[in-house]
């Protein structure tokens, strides 16, 4: 539990204690929202990128969640179906009820979209080596609050031992391309009469979100990556950087906001992060755990608004359904009891701040951010303040800007000029302590973790 302590100089340019006024919503964005949740599965093929796959084209599976018409839900409505291995099919299909027993919100297969369509769209990319269903909690919770959420399964990405698994730089190159390809397909469905998603989406309200390397991909879609091969990324198997990854990714102009869940922003150069000019929020581990990792992202991004949310007690997989995944995979027979026990023995499944609470907090701040800065809805801005964190959230530290006050100049901020090799930041919300870190350190920490893969299967 975070003790905010005595308030001294604070790293914000807004009033410290911003409390909800008459225009503040009474809805809790961390709780289940007012909509039922619908779900469909899409299997897309990108013929321009076969990359020696046995399918002749690159397969891109997308699990789509959306606000459903609650009045159309009956006792006979089909619960959502989630294929656990949607591309190779070696694992069975799970059902919504498998996940509900572990805290994931209920969803219904192909339920009608809510009548007050269209809704904003969030493209979600999971972490490296993680299956798409690691994002089930966030996806269903956002959909219940009025968002269409498309969660991708990235082929040959380390989630399944029977799939090819090239160097991580191949994943870095593929991810933004997968997301843009899927976005085009979903928007085409939106324009096509007779599909489940017909007229369901605000095409000018699209956000990119993701966990870990998925967070990196979201940032690339907002600001681009000059070369996918030019940063020293931890490759645990020691594979060389494939020369074909020495290509650039341009921003996708359809992306209007980014949400990074403990994203791997260290893969990008400081000047590349600075090109992110759409509203941005990074929700991740606290400074005491990862040091300047997220402060670097927050300091570099040029967007206004630009928020940093530190979750005290969270670990990297805490922002996913890692622990729920193990239990469901055991329930359906995809993992042995020993494998389930091994996964549940990981520290984030037994931490003082349990993963479901981290997921709830992450979803809460993502929803408040997207409601305010993607859709322009009033009533959520009070949550996006340090004052709210001080008074209402024991495990959150919230940062709006690294400037010491609203009138701070570069002279007040040592090493924040563009030619300086370091940047300044506040490690904690409350207090006057200020730190410096390298903009582009040669050795990037923390390393990218691979908690999911189990080659003994």
Notable characteristics:
457 residues; alpha/beta; ten-stranded mixed β-sheet; 14 strands; 19% strand; globular; disordered N terminus
Count of the separate structural domains? 1
Beta-strand portion reads 15-25%
Q: What proportion of the residues is helical, as a percent range? A: 10-25%
Radius of gyration: 21 Å
The CATH H-level homologous superfamily: Alpha/Beta hydrolase fold, catalytic domain
Shape: globular
**Multimerization state:** single chain
Please explain how this structure is put together.
This protein has 457 residues and is an alpha/beta fold. The chain has a single domain (36-438), classed as Alpha/Beta hydrolase fold, catalytic domain (Rossmann fold, 3-Layer(aba) Sandwich). Helices cover 24% and strands 19% of the residues. The protein is built from eleven helices and 14 strands. The protein has helices spanning 96-100, 136-144, 168-191, 213-223, 270-273, 287-290, 293-300, 322-331, 337-344, 355-373, 386-392, and strands spanning 36-46, 58-68, 81-83, 93-95, 108-109, 119-125, 148-154, 201-211, 255-261, 280-285, 306-311, 396-399, 422-425, 435-438. The strands form three sheets. Strands 5-1-2-7-6-8-9-10-11-12 form a ten-stranded mixed β-sheet, with helices on both faces. It has a two-stranded antiparallel sheet with strand order 3-4. Helix 2 packs across helix 10 (355-373), helix 3 packs across helix 4 (213-223) and helix 8 packs antiparallel against helix 9. The longest helix has 24 residues, at 168-191. Residues 1-22 and 403-414 have low confidence and may be disordered.
């Amino acid at each position: 539990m975070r003790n905010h302590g005595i308030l001294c100089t604070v790293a914000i340019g807004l009033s410290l204690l911003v409390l909800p006024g008459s225009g503040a919503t009474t809805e809790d964005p961390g709780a289940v929202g007012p909509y039922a949740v619908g779900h469909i599965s899409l299997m897309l093929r990108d013929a321009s990128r076969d990359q020696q796959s046995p399918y002749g084209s690159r397969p891109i599976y997308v699990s789509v969640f959306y606000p459903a018409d609650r009045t159309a839900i009956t006792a006979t409505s089909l619960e959502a179906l989630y294929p656990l291995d949607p591309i190779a099919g070696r694992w069975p299909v799970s059902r919504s009820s498998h996940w509900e027993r572990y805290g994931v919100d209920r969803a219904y297969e192909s339920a009608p979209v809510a009548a007050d369509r269209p809704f904003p769209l969030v493209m979600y990319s999971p972490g490296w080596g993680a299956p798409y269903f690691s994002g089930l909690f966030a996806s269903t919770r956002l959909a219940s609050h009025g968002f269409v959420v498309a969660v991708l399964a990235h082929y040959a990405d380390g989630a399944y031992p029977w799939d090819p698994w090239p160097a991580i730089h191949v994943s870095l190159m593929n991810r933004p391309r997968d997301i843009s390809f899927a976005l085009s397909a979903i928007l085409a469905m939106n324009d096509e009469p007779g599909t489940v998603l017909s007229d369901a989406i605000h095409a000018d309200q699209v956000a990119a979100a993701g966990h870990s390397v998925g967070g990196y991909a979201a940032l690339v879609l907002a600001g681009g990556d000059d070369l996918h091969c030019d940063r020293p990324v931890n490759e645990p198997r020691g594979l060389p950087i494939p020369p074909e990854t020495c290509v650039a990714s341009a921003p996708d102009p359809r992306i209007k906001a980014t949400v990074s869940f403990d994203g791997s922003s260290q893969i990008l150069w400081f000047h590349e992060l600075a090109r992110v000019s759409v509203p941005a929020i990074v929700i991740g581990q606290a400074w005491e755990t990862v040091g300047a990792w997220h402060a670097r992202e927050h300091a570099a991004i040029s967007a206004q608004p630009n928020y940093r949310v530190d979750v005290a007690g969270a670990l990297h997989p805490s922002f996913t359904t890692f622990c729920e995944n193990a239990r469901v995979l055991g329930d359906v027979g995809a993992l042995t009891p020993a494998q389930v026990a091994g996964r549940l023995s990981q520290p984030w499944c037994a931490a003082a701040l349990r993963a479901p609470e981290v997921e709830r907090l992450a979803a809460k701040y993502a929803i408040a951010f997207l409601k305010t800065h993607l859709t322009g809805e009033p009533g959520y801005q009070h949550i996006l303040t340090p004052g709210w964190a001080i008074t209402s959230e024991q495990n959150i530290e919230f940062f709006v800007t690294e400037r010491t006050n609203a009138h701070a100049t570069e002279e007040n901020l040592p090493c924040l000029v563009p030619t300086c090799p370091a940047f300044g930041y506040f490690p904690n919300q409350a207090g006057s302590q200020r730190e410096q870190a390298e903009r582009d350190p040669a050795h990037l920490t923390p390393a990218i973790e691979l908690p999911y893969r189990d080659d003994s299967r």
